[in-house]
Design goal:
By secondary structure, the protein is α/β, with parallel strands linked by helices. The N and C termini lie far apart (43 Å). The strands form 2 sheets. An 8-stranded parallel beta barrel has the order 1-2-3-6-7-8-9-10, surrounded by 7 helices. The chain has a two-stranded antiparallel sheet with strand order 4-5. The longest helix has 21 residues. The chain has a single domain, classed as Aldolase class I (TIM Barrel), CATH 3.20.20. Helix 8 packs across helix 9, helix 9 runs parallel beside helix 10 and helix 11 runs parallel beside helix 13. The chain is globular, with a radius of gyration of 19 Å. The structure holds 1,3-dihydroxyacetonephosphate. The site of 1,3-dihydroxyacetonephosphate has 10 residues, from helix 12.
Length: 338
């Protein structure tokens, strides 16, 4: 498959991406919230339960894995990437090494992981990965994000994307503007505009073929502590406008992160965006919490109740699959709950 074909399959209409690439530290927080011990076995059990679920075939085009998981063998004998491919989804891998303090920019971060990346990519390709993820993080504040943070993160994203395409995989470019803060929706729009512009400038300088990329952005949304709430219609309008103005039309897929929205909000907002999508971008989800929160709760109640865990995951995957076509509705959520 060409890179463009891979990107199209990851974001095919009715499908999206499952972000199951929480680092060991992040999954520790998720497991703590449900009182489950953070062991390698428990991490595999939870993830394998999702990857064997019915919804995989119908609603999931790609799965982002963490270094530990891509090397694990499932208890049915297949390796984790084989299990995912068997369900007609593409295995992918998070390759950054996390957001680290940016020298000279107090309180801000730059994402690291470029050293030795070329060699690690070859290993991941052999393990079955056909796409990758790198996440840059930007906080909104009075003096954030600084020019220094915009420039250094965009530069790293572009160098990453270039190496990934050289290794014949599709880079997911994820510049995440965090929801934390009391800023309003227009501030989020303004900061995201600056972030996207800087990223696409650098991607152009590094000659990245945009057709073989997927953008993973935040939606344009008010800060989590903002006193002004926005409707899904407003979020959708501003998000699409921001993408149309700042993302080159050659980009194949745009797959949003959920970023701390509730599961329902994430589905509703994606649905509204797709209802008014008049672009050629394939617009879908690449959710972590937005796809797994309910399933995780079920896992906390009984780790061996595969049926209930999968039921919760299947439902969220189906709802988001519908949102990727603009066909989701609140009634479908209610019917499922009844
Ligand atoms: P959330 O959907 O939970 O924000 O996670 C997506 C992700 O992969 C962040 O890098």
């Amino acid at each position: 498959m060409t890179l463009e074909e891979i990107a199209k399959k990851m974001c095919a209409k009715g499908k999206g991406i499952l972000a199951a690439d929480e680092s060991t530290g992040t999954i520790a927080k998720r497991f703590k919230s449900i009182n489950v011990e953070n062991t390698e076995k428990n991490r595999l059990t939870f993830r394998q339960t999702l990857f064997s679920s019915k919804a995989m075939k119908n609603y999931i085009g790609g799965v982002i894995l963490y270094d530990e998981t891509i090397k694990q063998k499932s208890t049915i004998g297949l390796s984790v990437p084989e299990l995912i491919s068997k369900n007609d989804a593409i295995p992918g891998i998070k390759v950054d090494k996390g957001a680290k303090s940016l020298a000279g920019a107090v309180g801000e971060t730059v994402t690291e992981g470029l050293d030795g990346l070329r060699e690690r990519l070859q290993e991941y390709y052999k393990l079955g990965a056909r796409f990758t993820k790198w996440r840059a993080v930007y906080k909104i504040g009075n003096t954030y994000p600084s020019k220094q943070s915009l420039k250094s993160n965009a530069h790293a994203l572009a160098r990453y994307a270039c190496l990934v395409q050289e290794a014949k995989m599709v880079p997911i470019v994820e510049p995440e503007v965090l929801m934390e803060g009391d800023h309003d929706i227009d501030k989020c729009y303004e900061v995201t505009t600056n972030v996207l512009n800087e990223c696409y400038n650098e991607l152009e300088i590094h000659k990245v073929d945009l057709k073989g990329t997927v953008l993973k952005p935040n939606m344009i949304i008010p800060g989590s502590d903002s006193s002004k709430k926005s409707s899904s219609v407003e979020i959708a309008k501003k998000t699409l406008e921001c993408l149309k103005k700042n993302v080159p039309s050659a980009v194949t897929g745009i797959a949003f992160l959920s970023g701390g929205q509730s599961e329902i909000e994430a589905s509703k907002n994606l649905n509204e965006i797709n209802k008014i999508n008049d672009t050629n971008f394939l617009i879908t989800f690449s959710y972590g919490r937005g796809l797994q929160a309910s399933a995780l709760k079920e896992f906390g109640k009984d780790q061996n109740n595969e049926n209930n865990i999968q039921k919760a995951f299947d439902h969220r995957a189906k709802m988001n699959g519908l949102s990727s076509k603009g066909e989701w509705s609140e009634n479908l959520e209610k019917e499922a709950a009844a």
